[in-house]
Amino acid sequence: MTSRARHRAALMSDPDVLHVVIVTMLACVLSAGLVYLGYFLHVVQVARRSRCQPRYRNALLVFGKHAPGGHIDPDFAARIQRVIELWPKHRPERLFLLGGGAAGDLTEADIAHAALVQKIRIDPQILHLERRSRDTLQNLRNARSLLADTPHRGPVTLLSSRYHLARCARFARQLGMDAELCAAEAHLQWNLLTLWRLLGEAGYLCLLDLGCRWARLIGSARMLARLS
User: Fold this and answer.
1) For 115-147, what is each residue's pLDDT tens digit?
2) Distance between CA atoms of 85 and 183, rounded to whole angstroms?
3) pTM
């Protein structure tokens, strides 16, 4: 089993996660799927409407993507290419490359950095590599800690694939981060793979949002702490 698979298995065996999964499934079943449909439509709307150029230049947070053996897939490549295209006119004051990796492998942050420095010149003083996270929530938690250690003002910009942006935005709000979204792709491309990813992201968002609401309802500080 890969380290990524072990990480996911550990999450799914967590009692709090299982608790939330059961509550979410009940909500979806009792609503005849309408609850899930609402989250799916929201994910699609965010994916379609997100801008490709940020309004702010305070801090650009670039999400990595699983890259076994250092292989950059089309989604990861699009995120890197968006940074390259933004650089001449929308260069950020600080650049955060996010994402860890398996022990002994290059991290997602290092892979993105290696690809970027082949195309653009990055001042080391503005660059921050976050190498410890294995999922989106950890990405943002660790980025929040890095931001706390650097001069910070105004919203940060979250750059990722269009299908991923709704989850990024939800986690950022949950963590108290003021953020705007920046899409890697010029527009949402409809195909079976994109549809599959949008469906999966709707599931993630459904679990996250209903889990937070349920934790507040039952007064579980422990469950809420897992998401903040």
Assistant:
1) 999 999 999 999 999 999 989 999 999 999 999
2) 12
3) 0.90
